Amino acid sequence: MSKQMPKRVYKQRKSIFRKQQPAHPLTRILLGLVLISGLTASTILVLQRFKVIPVWAGIPSLPILSNKQPTVEAQSLVWGLVNLPREERMRSLEKLAQGEKNADTFRARYLLAKDYISLKQGEPALTLLTGLENDYNLLAPQILSQRARAYSLQGDQAKSKQAWLDLVNNYSNHPLAPEGLFELGKQEAKYADLAIAKFPAHPLTREIIQARLQQEPKQPKLLKLLAIYHPDIKGANLIRNQLVKDYRDQLKPEEWEAIASGYWEAAEYGKAADAYTKVPRTALSAYRYARGKHLASRPPEAKSGYLQLIADFPEAKEIGLGLRHLASLTPAQSALGYLDQVIAKFPEEAPQALREKAKILERQEDSAGATQARQLLFSQYGNSEIAAELRWQTASKLAEKGDLAGAWQNAQPITVNNPDSEYASEASFWIGKWAKQLGKDQDAIAAWQHTLARYPESYYAWRSAALLGWDVGDFSTIRQKNPSISRNPENLILPAGSELVRELYRLGEYQSAWAVWRMELKDQSKMTVEEQFTDGVLRQGIGDNLAGINQIWSLSRRRGEERVQWLKLREQKIYWEALFSFPFQTEISKWSQQHQVNPLLVTSLIRQESRFETDITSSAGALGLMQVMPDTAAWIATTANFGKYDLKNYQDNIKLGTWYLAHNHREYENSSLLAIASYNAGAGNVADWVQRFGVNDPDAFVETIPFPETYDYVKSVLGNYWNYLRLYNPEIGQKIATQQPTK
Q1: Cβ contacts of 647 within 8 Å, gap of 6 or more
Q2: What is the DSSP string of 110-175?
Q3: What per-residue string of b and e applies to 326-350 under the rule 16 or more CB within 10 Å gives b?
Q4: Helix (H, G, I), strand (E, B), or coil: what is residue 426?
Q5: Which end of the chain has fewer CB within 10 Å, C or N?
Q6: In DSSP terms, which residues pair with 164 in a beta bridge?
Q7: Residue pair 220/243 in contact by the 8 Å Cβ criterion
Q8: What pLDDT sits at residue 14?
Q9: Which of 16, 74, 5, 15 shows the shortest CA–CA distance to 40?
Q10: Is there a contact between 656 and 647 (Cβ–Cβ < 8 Å)?
Q11: Distance between CA 415 and CA 397 in Å, rounded?
């Protein structure tokens, strides 16, 4: 048996071989090779296509079980049609479906059949689906499910049921089998039972479980399945609470671990800490217990937990963090001792420990000791994020005092020693601003060109482009612009997941792709960089935009080798296109045009307000995509004579929110800076800031916004605008590609 073949694959193939021994010796030899080798999915499918290997139940699932990374055909005429409006794509699909038999023909037949089903036309769909599972083997279960739906449209419930039965019987172990079990389970409970027993991670199984819990809430077995396999669903904390309260004595250690991890990811740190006392003790569980108590404002228990962590796991990587946090809970002298241990043994935490040590020494009026700690930080950890932060703080303070030359000199080491720091793009831009004010025009141009080349995704790249004279809109001209947009019509090729997941996603079968992915992903807490990116993309596919975007964004928190992988991923355009997607573009374009606002600016504001999540309410009561307050909506509707509206309806929400953004622009003479700030903080606060700080230099005004939320908001919205522009406007994208960072 191949060392790389999972045991489950070998056992499945062996079982099939025993049941279906063919008479021809050559075929038996080939099947033996399938059994003992790690043949790829494409090889198996070729053998099936030419009848060397029959299409038995179970074989279609081999691509999913293989631990080799399959590939999906990169070029296909169908890929470019998937996201077109139905009426527009059907004409092209009809032509492709009539061509010679090939992969595109099969895809076209499948998608066209789905379109007919969506139009409630069962007969033409059935014609297209007839025999398709034999040619399009990878999607055979999906084809059977569409056939069942087409028969149902025809009113032939018997044939519909038979198609579902063919799916669950012929593909009993396939990750798409739950679709059939779900439909059959509506009539016969045994099929729903089978879905729960065999496919607990499938989203449709989750629906079955939730429906049963609505009828009878006191079912610990079902509650535990939700806690383990669906820890991030709406109401998950209530499920965990119920398990802990009512069934704690029935919970096994692995179930406690799922509960603890779920609480931790949901930021319920106190509850997570308590749950971690029930799991096998490791350095991670011990750390999370202590840190959970710390974040839950339980200092005595946190301190005790950190000390126990250090005693039990003295060499674990979690000790550095534990010692630093312990230092924050103890008197100065003890704290200095703990920080010295971090500095001596844990280099990843040493920069932060040195900064904290310097602060303690300053409070003790030991200026020499504090200076020595900072010098050690710069000499040994000069390329750390902490060093970059301290350098930037120094430069900013000098600039505030009017010492622009000193600020310029102190900021320059950041772009050299800390090029990947979160402060680097800001430093690079302001090096240019200060150089310009000092009369060093060529140095200013070089700095802004460096910002564009090295940090093209940053807010400060947009500001650099504007000051270099690019046609990208400035604070006072963005509103009027309507930039041309060019988008790739195809769904991207996912970097992780089976061939089946990739095929489904590229076909626009987002729910099915997500369902298969959830079953393939065994441990959500241990995803690789590529897996987490794929998870985020698939979440957006099913409309879970908030979680999807945040999943991709949080890759920036990876450390060590994983951070290197993330940095490589973010060099690819697919990474940024996934972060800056275009939901609701038809509605945004419609209302932006009517209210004369740059549609990219509206898209950017929505992305910041709600991450394109329609059913979302802020703590203050703002609703929907553009987070409009009910009182504000009532005033808008009256002023603009809009009549009836529903803020939970995304079209009404965009209509009202876009009108309000246009109104803000009118109030501030088309200053997008002030209009956006007012959208977040209110007109009264903006008026106060304008009076206090002035807006002669809008870049300086942004940096002086006293509300941290509004400061981040303004930069984020305008940074979003810039990213949409650079990614989807061909002219700007081409100009950025010509920039070269300075050495």
Answers
A1: 623, 624, 628, 630, 633, 653, 656
A2: HHHHHHHHHTT-HHHHHHHHTTHHHHSGGGHHHHHHHHHHHHHHTT-HHHHHHHHHHHHHHTTTST
A3: bbebeeeeebbebbebbbeebeebb
A4: helix
A5: C
A6: none
A7: yes
A8: 42
A9: 5
A10: yes
A11: 18
Q: If you search the block for the tokens 């059959």, which residue do you land on? A: 184
Sequence-ordered alpha helix ranges (H) in 438-560: 441-454, 459-467, 499-506, 510-520, 529-541, 545-553
List, in order, residues 6 or more apart from 621 with CB less than 8 Å away.
629, 630
Question: What's the CA gap between 15 and 33, in Å, rounded?
Answer: 14
CA–CA separation, 721 and 312 (whole Å): 50
Q: Indicate the pLDDT class of residue 32, thresholds 50, 70 and 90.
A: very low
In eight-state DSSP terms, residue 282 is: -
Closest CA to 289 of 276, 304, 303: 276
User: Could you give the CA distance from residue 427 to residue 418 in angstroms, rounded to a whole number?
Assistant: 10
On the question of pLDDT at 57 being above 80, the answer is no
Structural contact between residues 74 and 166, judged by C-beta atoms closer than 8 angstroms: no
Instruction: Give per-residue pLDDT as tens, 466-524.
Output: 999 999 999 999 999 999 999 988 998 999 999 999 999 999 999 999 999 999 988 78
The per-residue b/e assignment along 123-145, b for 16 or more CB within 10 angstroms, e otherwise, is ebbbebbeebbebbbbbbbbbbb
Task: Pull the structure tokens for residue 267.
Answer: 């930021």
H helices within 671-729, ranges in order?
Answer: 672-681, 683-693, 698-704, 708-728
In this structure, the number of other CB atoms found within 10 A of the CB of residue 187 comes to 12
The alpha carbon of 341 is separated from its chain's Cα centroid by a whole number of angstroms, namely 37
Distance of CA 9 to the CA centre of its chain: 31
Q: Does residue 589 contact residue 599 with C-beta atoms inside 8 Å?
A: yes
From the number of C-beta atoms within 10 Å of its C-beta (0-12, 13-18, 19+), residue 245 rates as exposed
> Do 16 and 58 form a contact (C-beta atoms < 8 A)?
yes
Spatial contact of 406 and 429, defined as CB atoms under 8 Å apart: no
Q: What percent of the chain shows pLDDT beyond 90?
A: 86
Measured at the alpha carbon of residue 51, what is the angle toward residues 45 and 57, in degrees to the nearest 5?
Answer: 65
In single-letter form, the type of residue at position 303 comes to K
What percentage of the chain reaches a pLDDT higher than 70?
Answer: 90
- The answer to whether 240 touches 271, Cβ cutoff 8 Å, is yes
Average pLDDT over residues 45-55: 34
Pair 387, 378: CB distance under 8 Å: yes
Q: For the segment 357-412, what is each residue's pLDDT rounded down to a tens digit? A: 999 999 999 999 999 999 999 999 999 999 999 999 999 999 999 999 999 999 99
| Residue 623: φ, ψ to 5° | -120, 145
What is the C-alpha separation between 470 and 455, in angstroms, rounded?
A: 16
Residue with tokens 């997500």: 514
d(C-alpha 615, C-alpha 625), whole Å: 8
Cα–Cα distance for residue pair 735/726, rounded to 1 Å: 9
pLDDT of residue 28: 44
Structure tokens at 646: 């529903």
Q: Please give the model's pTM, rounded to 2 decimal places.
A: 0.86
pLDDT in tens, 119-132: 999 999 999 999 99
- Tokens standing for residue 142: 């999906």
Assign 569 a pLDDT band (cuts: 50, 70, 90). Answer: very high
Element at 14 (helix H, strand E)? helix 7-19
Whose CA is closest to 530, among 507, 551, 499? 551
pLDDT of 743: 62
